[in-house]
Design goal:
Blueprint (H helix, E strand, L loop, with lengths): L10 E2 L2 E3 L60 E2 L10 E3 L5 E3 L4 E2 L11 E6 L3 E3 L3 E10 L5 E10 L3 E2 L7 E9 L4 E10 L3 E11 L2 E13 L3 E6 L3 E3 L3 E10 L5 E10 L3 E7 L3 E3 L2 E9 L4 E10 L3 E11 L4 E12 L5 E7 L4 E2 L3 E10 L5 E9 L4 E10 L2 E4 L4 E2 L2 E10 L4 E10 L3 E11 L4 E12 L1
Parallel strand pairs: 1-23, 8-15, 8-25, 17-25, 27-36
Antiparallel strand pairs: 2-20, 3-6, 4-5, 7-9, 9-13, 10-12, 10-14, 11-13, 14-15, 16-18, 18-23, 19-22, 19-24, 20-23, 21-22, 24-25, 26-28, 28-34, 29-33, 29-35, 30-31, 30-34, 32-33, 35-36
Length: 463
């Protein structure tokens, strides 16, 4: 990744090496539930069963009517003969008076969380551009001495908001139990295309009762700048993923003190980033004193993929001195390192100008203990570019490969044999024909096992 002069993009920051620097709804489950009422034989009067049928009440009983207990109607009651009871038998003592017996069912009243000890905090930007996805970050904390059960967050938002493309203006998230002193964080993203102030209301309920209520509003303004982040969709553990952040001032005025931040998943470790970067825990940031009207900035970051992750996400946020905020998110799937064939791509220069060639280095590596034979390579014809050259590097020799596309697919000659711990390197050049984002993709198929692996690299093409 190198720096280059851009005609329309006024700034492209060169990369610097970085040193090592140390969120679906779930069905609600009710805490507890109906409990069976035990029926000890020593209960009085007349040791009458608590589950006796109404017509079986013994004459002379002090009960006006029999008590029927069913799982649907019984309260949470525990029998505790060893503890001081709330209900007692009366028996005659030596004096002829009645005394209390310590036996009988004990009604245990569960301790409830004090609602005033539950805290709900909602963080959201104050000013956002229309057409942006706004993330409401909620923090729920239990400051009481008891666990908080059956926690539920309910959200209701103005008509201008759209949640996941749905027409409904409400959303519910079940949180379950929050232990004493525990804290949970959740996020909800809403889209808005209308200028103005729009509000969202949140209710935190525990055991069906409202504990905390919050209302937050966001001011949406006309778009002042463009923000985007592009990168690969998939990688393997041990490989690298390169991302390009693009910022452009589309307003009629210069912007002051523009800050761009990239927050990244723990499964990613930054290895290279554009000049001027400040690295902190889980975040990279750049600050620009002045961005002129019509000026654009491109930043690049390259991450090493440390761990397997279904979704390792990055969030890029741009904010100006007037508080206008915009955010973009992108996620990467990180698979385990292949036991057999490994396929990696790296672009030699990014970005490039339209009409120039984008160069890629493709590396095949056999991680297995057995030789791999007959490996077929396929390249889909890229949109916005034409494959101009393919060279197989065999030691010090370079072998030019004839290029022929059929049905949008370029088939390269098969690799006859790849021994364990051996690698095969290929150079590929693509002539760019359109500005935008060029995606170069290549597949490797091992005919013996049927294994197919794919890799892709995204290159920014400037006008």
């Amino acid at each position: 990744m190198n720096s280059c002069h851009l005609k329309l993009w006024n700034r492209f920051l060169p990369l610097v090496l970085l040193g090592c620097v140390t969120g679906c709804m779930a069905p609600m489950q009710m805490a507890g539930g109906p409990m069976r009422l035990d029926d000890p034989p020593y209960l009085s009067p007349q040791r009458q069963s608590l589950r006796v049928a109404p017509n079986a009440v013994t004459p002379g009983s002090d009960l006006d009517e029999a008590v029927t207990s069913t799982p649907e109607s019984s309260p949470s009651i525990e029998t505790s003969p060893d503890n001081a009871p709330n209900t007692t038998d009366l028996a005659d003592d030596d004096t002829g008076t009645q005394s209390a017996s310590p036996q009988g069912p004990t009604i245990v009243v569960p301790q409830r969380t004090d609602p005033s000890k539950l805290r709900l905090q909602v963080d959201v930007p104050e000013r956002v551009q229309v057409g942006s996805s706004t993330t409401f970050e909620l923090t729920i904390e239990n400051n009481s001495e008891q666990d908080a059960g059956d926690l539920v967050i309910e959200a209701e938002f103005d008509d201008a908001f759209v949640f996941s493309g749905r027409e409904a203006k409400q959303a519910t998230q079940t949180l379950g139990v929050l232990s004493s002193g525990e804290q949970k964080r959740i996020a909800m993203s809403l889209d808005c295309d209308e200028v103005g102030n729009h509000c969202c209301r949140f209710r935190l309920l525990t055991d069906g009762q409202e504990a905390v209520w919050k209302s937050v509003c966001v001011e949406y303004v006309a778009r002042q700048f463009d923000l985007d982040i592009v990168g690969p969709p998939e990688r393997m553990v041990g490989s690298r993923a390169e991302y390009t952040v693009e910022f452009a001032n589309r307003s009629q005025q210069d912007w002051q003190d523009v800050q761009i931040t990239v927050a990244f998943d723990p499964a990613l470790k930054p290895r290279e980033a554009s000049d001027g970067v400040i690295e902190s825990d889980g975040m990279l940031s750049w600050t620009f004193d002045r961005v002129q009207s019509g000026e654009g900035i491109q930043l690049q970051v390259e991450f090493e993929c440390l761990n397997v992750a279904e979704l390792a996400c990055l969030s890029v946020v741009a904010e100006g001195a007037d508080g206008i905020n915009d955010r973009r998110d992108v996620c990467l799937k990180i698979g385990p390192a292949a036991n057999g064939l490994e396929l990696n791509i790296a672009d030699e220069m990014d970005p490039v100008k339209v009409g120039a060639e984008a160069a890629y280095a493709v590396r095949l590596f056999n991680r297995g203990s057995q030789p791999l034979q007959q490996i077929q390579l396929e390249i889909p014809v890229p949109q916005g570019g034409t494959v101009a050259e393919v060279v197989f590097l065999e030691g010090e020799n370079r072998r030019d490969i004839a290029i022929a596309a059929e049905d949008g697919l370029i088939q390269l000659p098969p690799i006859d044999r790849l021994d364990p711990a051996a690698e095969m390197n290929i150079e590929i050049r693509i002539l760019t024909t359109l500005p935008g984002h060029l995606t170069f993709q290549i597949s490797a198929i091992h005919e013996g096992s049927g294994l197919k692996i794919e890799s892709a690299e995204v290159t920014t093409v400037n006008p």
